Every structure is written in C-alpha cells, then in structure tokens.
Amino acid sequence: MIEQPTMVKICGILEESPGVKTFFFKLNLNFEPGQFVMVWIPLLDEKPFTVSYIQDDLLGISVLKKGGFTNALHSKKIGDTLGIRGPYGRGFSLKSDFNSCVVGGGIGMASLATLVDRLNLAVEEHLGNVTIIQGARTAAEIVYQNRFRDMKLCTEDGTAGIKGTTVDLLRDLLEKQRFRKVYACGPERMLYKVVELCKGRGIECEVSLERYIKCGFGVCGQCDCSGQRVCIDGPVFNREELSRMEDFGKIIITKTGERIIH
Amino acid sequence: MSKINLSVNLCGIQLTNPTILASGILGTTKALLKRVAENGAGAVTIKSISVEPREGHKNPTVITFEAGMLNAVGYSNPGVDAAAREFTNLQDVGVPVIASVIGTQKEDFVRVVEGLSVQKFSAIEIPLSCPHTPGFGLLAGQGTPQATFDITSAVRKTTKLPVFVKLSPNIPEICTIAKAAEDAGADAITAVNSMGPGMIINIEAQKPILSFKVGGVTGDALRPIAVRCVYDLYKAVKIPIIGVGGISTGRHAIEMMMAGASAIGIGTGVYFRGIDVFVKVCEEIRLWMQENGFGTIKSIVGAAHD
Questions:
Q1: Phi/psi at B2 (nearest 5 deg)?
Q2: Domain coordinates of chain B in residue numbers?
C-alpha cells in the first residue's frame, strides 16, 4: 500500500467515449478488482478512482468528465504527472468457477473491468462463464466495446442494445439463464434494484458503492453508510451486508457530513 | 487471580472502561458511534459541530506518515440543526456520547450547546485548540487564558452537563489555560488536541500534500508531548484529565493514565490498529494490570508522580 501520493507520469491516453478517457501510467500496485486509489492533482483536489486496466505494472484509470476535477484530469497530456496513493478498500470476492453476471451502469463499468479480466481467465480454462451487461444513456456513452466482446447492451434512448435499463435486461436474463453470482457497479438506485432481484432469486450478489471519500483509510467517517465505512469496510458489499445497511439506496452523505435522502 | 475492574467514573459519567473515541474520528453519524461502541469504546465523541454547515478543506485532508497522521479536515460538519436531527435516541449507541462543540465566538458555542440540548448527550467538549481551521481554535485566538475563561464560562452557564475543555499541546503555558478553564467551571480537561501545524511535502510534486498545506499532527509523534502535558496538568488542576495523543496500545493508555489521565482518548489509533482498537487496548490494559497487580484504573491514575 502506498501511504502518501506517489507521482506517476501519464504514458498513454485512450479515449473510451466522448466523455471518458483512460489514463495509463506505470506503478507497482497490488490492486484487487473493486478496490480504489486516490488520485491527486497538486493544489487542486484528490478523488477516488478505480483502476480499470492492469497489465503487469501498467495501470489505467478511466475518468468520466463530470466536474472541475475530472475536467482538469481530461486536460492532462502524456508526460503530465498525477499523485497516486492506495490501493484502498475491500474489493470483490472472486468466484470464478461458475456462471456469473457482471452489471455495469454508466462509468460504473470501470470498477468492473478488471473483475471481468479476472473472470475471463477462468472462462479460458472452461471453469465458468461471464455475461456482461452494460447500460448507458445513449450509444456514444458505451465504454470498452472493443475490449469486451459480446456485451449485452441497453440504453435509455435505444440507440444501442435494447431500450431500457440494466435492471430490465438482468431481469429478462434471469428468466432464461442461471447465474451463481451477480457483480454490479453503477448508480445506487440501480444497485438497489439489482440486489432486490438477486435476493428474490437466491443469487449471490456483490455491488460496489460510491460515497464522497476523504481519508480513504477508515478514520474520518465521511463515507459512512449505516455504520459501514465505504472506503475500508467496502466499497464492495454483499447482499447480506447490504440488507443490514438501511441507508443503502436511500441515504447519502453530503460534503458537510449531513445524511440526506438520495 | 485478582478481579480486574476497568470501569471509570468521569465527572459523574459511568464508563465501563477508560477508552473514549476522540473527536474528529468516525463521529459523523449515529450509526458509526454505535459501531465504535460495539468495538469496545467506553464513551464516544461526535465530530465537532458548528452553528452553520461547513464543507471543510478540500482533499487531501488527511495523510499518514511513519509516526502518525497529519490532518486539516477543516471542521466539515452539517451544522447544529442537522446534527440535532442525526444524533437522536442516543441511548441506542450503548455508551455515553460526548458532543464536541465549536464556534468562532462564544455566542456560537452557546447556540450549538442549546441546539444539541434536545438530545441526550452525556457531556460537552469544547476544543479551543484546533491548529488548522481559520476562524476557530488557535487561529481565532481561543487558546489564551482569557478567551478560554470567557468561552468556558458562557458554555458553563448554558448547560448542566459536564464541560470538557480541549487544549493545545503547542502552548507552553498549557497549565495557565487549564486553570482558566477550571476557574470558569470546566469539569475536565481534554489534553491534547493535535499539535503543530505540521507539513508534509511531496518532493516530486514540490508541493505540500494537504490542500490546506498544513495540518495537525497526531499519532506516535504526538504521544510524548501529550504525556508531558498531562503530567504537568495533573499537578496544576484538580479536575480530571482525559489524556489524548498517540494512544494505540494498552501500554500507551497506561502510560497516559500514570501521567495523570482519568480516561484516555483514541483517534489516530483507529488507523494503526483498526476500528476494534478499543477492545484491543482494553484487553491489553487488563492483562497488564493482572500481571502487575493493579485492580482498578484509579490506582493507575497519576502513578508516575512523586
């Protein structure tokens, strides 16, 4: 674990979609799918991101442009530097020897990407199967299309895949196919519905939550979700844990620390 | 085998053990307080509350180093009204809950104490000693004997609950300030707040890491200073002292109590030993007491004095 930000040089940039860029850098990091790193731009801010590519010591983070910090990240060029500390948190517990379904909503797909890589290794050994569902608002926002073939797609406007949500797609799929485990990341309302679907059918389920993160290592209390610290107890939680977390799908915490309706 | 009793009576508040969650760590929600209580804390302190909501400083706000932690969170908190809604039915937490109250002037302290009075807090703590938030603590001149006296008096008149005054280790005349607090009616001294501020620079970025550039130093680096402060305070004031600063093991806790602390706060220790640091420290205290022939916490308090 890297305690203080280590400065890394951006060595590659890949445009995943009009709003998403992946920044590649070299760093020896013992990263497990579902964990996160804190990315620091000196004098600006520091935010949590998942690592979405791991090829030996070449790592990538996929960044959706959505605010001041991510705008600043998107303006970075090859050769510019970023501070990285981590990895933090508890990732997915991989069960690769049976059929699983991975459900990504929007940029949530980035948290699932290295998980899919791991699961695919098992697929090559004929140990199990992976079905990927990706949902977005519109076709242009779909990411990793060349990286993961045979994804089942859905969009809100119907420009790619079926017109509907990942939850609709998953529900249909569960009628036809048997999965032992569902992994999901995306908007919390979507995650809530995915968990409900799995609960009703007795399917194991793990989802990755998002909260405003400060310290990243479980001391500041900013990322609480019903007594669970998303940064260290999570960000990945399973169905049973989530059933004891009343705030899941309902309450978030603002930057001031106030718990408000999601 | 002699029977070991870890219980402590702190200003009339009965604690099952002397460990207290220090303010600023994990005290953001009632659910987290309950979790800390389940992990063995004898009492818990909420994250400091001001009149108005505050977002605090930008990230990075907390960073660790070999000997502790550096933080400049900047008192992010939802403000007194939201806090009064969050910390309801505090008996659910299972242990006494201490309200940490901050303000830029004494009237603010009074307003927050009044606002929180609708909930069942067991004590009020007023940190007059934050080293890294403009408008508060040291940066607002609250660390002088006169300001300490004035703010403590105002809070004293507003509440019947025990009032703890949290002091900075930075100030050489810490005993004078503690006496001012005692004279104003404080029931206990919490010693100490984070020291410094300190700075950590990333030499590749050639910039300080914290967004506020400087932050309060806690953890191992602070402990010898905190122990010395408590040792001096024990001789200077009659009211009990809550010793805080770098405690993460039972031995640290015993050392602090021997210096004169009646109870001890744990904050940064949560990082070094996990959220169950409280139960670990209690077990280590118990074992040490057993091996060394101490039956009560009271018999340890002040033992290092001549």
A1: -75, 155
A2: 8-57+77-199+218-292
